[in-house]
Design brief:
Order of helices and strands: HHHEHEEHEH
Strand order of the largest sheet: 2-3-1-4
Largest sheet: 4 strands, antiparallel
Radius of gyration: 20 Å
Structural class: alpha+beta
Shape: elongated
Strand content: 15-25%
Distance between the termini: 11 Å
Length: 145
């Protein structure tokens, strides 16, 4: 990978729908050359996919919570989270906590139901998100050096 590849990745992180023509103008190459580079980045699994950001409030999922679990059954907790429609993210981590789960749900009542259903698999500590922001795209310039 060279500096042009990193620049392409940076622009795609900012907007995955950026056209090849636009990318080409940013990196001063032709659109076919940029398309070939993007294709190679996809084939090398540097680019794993393209994603859509969804407004959770528009889907009536305005209650977002981060739940930390001291798991008593990691496998069953993982299976439960994987199958639950409110779970956005689930991470198995090392340390005192064994899982971090992020959910988006419709109400405090449905949050409570999720916690009750998950309790057989571990001890939860629930944190309701009041506000936040998404981080800036990965600083690829730092990785490049």
């Amino acid at each position: 990978m060279d500096s042009i590849d990193y620049e392409i990745l940076r622009h795609l992180q900012l907007n995955a729908k950026t056209s090849m023509k636009e990318l080409a103008s940013y990196v001063h190459l032709s659109a076919p050359a940029v398309a070939e580079r993007v294709k190679k980045l996809e084939e090398q699994n540097v680019i794993e996919g393209y994603h859509t950001k969804i407004n959770l409030k528009s889907l009536n999922r305005s209650i977002v919570a981060i739940i930390l679990f001291k798991s008593s059954d990691c496998k069953k907790l993982s299976q439960f989270c994987h199958s639950h429609p409110d779970v956005l993210e689930c991470y198995r981590v090392a340390g005192e906590i064994s899982y971090i789960v992020k959910i988006a749900t419709t109400s405090i009542e449905t949050l409570e139901e999720f916690i009750d259903q998950a309790m057989p698999y571990g001890t939860p500590s629930t944190n309701i998100v009041l506000s936040g922001y998404e981080s800036n795209p990965l600083s690829l310039k730092e990785i490049e050096s």
